[in-house]
Amino acid sequence: MQNTTQSLVVNNQVSRWQVFTAQEALNERAVRHIEEAARNAIARQGSFSIVLAGGSTPKSVYQLLPGIETDWGKWHVYYGDDRCLPPEHEERNSLMAHEAWLKHVAIPAAQVHDIPAEQGPEAAAQAYNQILQNAGEFDLVLLGLGEDGHTASLFPGHIWDDNQAAVPVFGAPKPPPERVSISAGRLSQAREVVFFVTGAGKQEAVDNWRRGEAIPASLIKPTNGVDIFIFGVNL
């Protein structure tokens, strides 16, 4: 069960920290949160837009999503980032989400917007910029947190054009070095943002974030603030 909730305002970012005592509890709460966000968005405007994260915790959440009650035909799926690898490569975020979840539900293919990262960083970022022009405000953005404080493929020490919706990434410290990411500014254009943070290896990044250091995750500043679901990290 969830055992702690804390709210902070640091550097104009409102954050709500929800600590879970088990990974399973975090996963189940995440699924309920996504289901509720979809229900509210569809009731409000007839559609639901979600931005997906990569990683093991999002994968375990995605595997549970086929069991929710929703109108899949109203969903529009985007990706926060992806690696410049072939579409069938096991490290592509789009392939992971497809295998864990999307192939099991009836979201129309035209409403699943993969980043064409196989085209290379610059061409893929340009193409995704065009796609995102029609996306409007995202209803829900899912993000992770790296041990170095990165989120999506926005790494510390890198400079990107925050006026662009999607940006090319070169020289990433984690392989592969070439990627495409939605920018911090565009990720902030969201009704809700939820971070999944699990594992003791994230402790330093969390401490830095809460102290107000300018890690990439701290640059995501939607109007309604961000929710952070954490397990295995001390506050």
From TrEMBL:
GO biological process: carbohydrate metabolic process; pentose-phosphate shunt
Domain (Glucosamine/galactosamine-6-phosphate isomerase): residue spans on this chain: 23-225
Top class in the EC scheme: hydrolase
InterPro entries assigned: 6-phosphogluconolactonase_DevB, 6PGL, Glc/Gal-6P_isomerase, NagB/RpiA_transferase-like
Catalysed conversion reaction: 6-phospho-D-glucono-1,5-lactone + H2O = 6-phospho-D-gluconate + H(+)
GO MF terms, alphabetically ordered: 6-phosphogluconolactonase activity
Enzyme Commission number(s) from the entry: 3.1.1.31
Superkingdom of this protein's organism: Bacteria
Gene3D superfamilies the record matches: 3.40.50.1360
Listed pathway(s): Carbohydrate degradation; pentose phosphate pathway; D-ribulose 5-phosphate from D-glucose 6-phosphate (oxidative stage): step 2/3
Keywords for this protein: Hydrolase
Family the UniProt entry places it in: Belongs to the glucosamine/galactosamine-6-phosphate isomerase family. 6-phosphogluconolactonase subfamily.
Function (record text): Hydrolysis of 6-phosphogluconolactone to 6-phosphogluconate.
Name by which UniProt lists this protein: 6-phosphogluconolactonase
Organism per entry: Methylobacillus rhizosphaerae
